[in-house]
Design brief:
heterodimer, A: 184 residues, mainly alpha, 9 helices, 0% strand, globular, B: alpha+beta, Alpha-Beta Plaits, two-stranded antiparallel sheet, 3 helices, 24% helix, transmembrane helix (chain A), Fe3_Rdtase_TM_dom (chain A), transmembrane (chain A)
Amino acid sequence: MNEVFWAFGRASGIVSLGLFTLVVVLGIVSRSGRPLPGLPRFSVALLHRSTSLLALVFLVLHVSTLMLDPHAKLSPPNVIVPFTAGWNPFWVGLGTVAFDLVIALVVTGLLRQRIGQRTFRAIHWAAYAMWPFAFAHALGSGTNAVDLWFQAYAWGCAAVVACLIIWRLSANFIETSRARLGRI
Amino acid sequence: MDALSRAQLELHIDFARCDGRGLCTELLPELLVRDDWGYPVGRGGRDVRVPEPLATAAQDAVDLCPLQALMLRRVTRA
C-alpha cells in the first residue's frame, strides 16, 4: 500500500508539470490575441481556464497522496507553509510555494469579475513565478529526477516555456502590433 | 408587457479598457466587426443594441472579455 501512494504521488506530480506547462502556453497564446488552428480566440481562453482547473486536480492529488505516504509524511501545515517538510524540506518547499501561488491564481481567476481587472492582473503575473518554482521542485525533489526520460521531459517543458516567453517579449507578439505601430 | 421586457438590451463597450483582443467580435459577428487595429466596431458606437436571440452570445462576450470592457444592460429609449 505504501508503494501505491508514493507511485501515485510521483505520477501525479509529473502530470501536473506537463499540464501547468500547457496552461502557461495557452495563457501566453491567449494574451497574444491570436487564435490557434481550429481554435478561435474565445476557445483558447476557455481551454486555458479548463486546463488550469485540470492541472489543479492533479496537483491536489499529488499533494494529498504524499500526505498519506508514510515516507513523505506531509502534514497539513507542510502543504501551506514552505520549507517545513520533514523530508527534503528545501526542494519540497519550492513545491509548496508553487502550490500557494496556484491557489492564489485559481481563486482570483474564478473571482475575476468581482475583484476587478486591476487586482486580477496584478496577481495573475504570479503565474510566471509559479512555473519556475514547480520546475525546480520537480528536478530537486523528484525521485525520478536522475532518470534520463524525466530529465528529457522536464527540460522539454522548460524549453517550451522559454520559447513562449521569448515570443511574449518580442515586438510582434500582439496580433495587431504591426497595425498599431502604423505599419499596415 | 412591463417596462423591463420592453426595454432594449444594449452592449456597452468601455473603450478606456478595451484592448481589441477580438473575443467579442468572434462571439457576436452579427453585431460587431473588427477594425484594422483589432477593436470592435458596432452600430451605435459604444452602445450596441442587442436583439433578444443574441442575448446569450452577448452575455458570453461579457464574461469572456479578457479586459472586462463589456457591459450588458437594459435601457429604455424614448
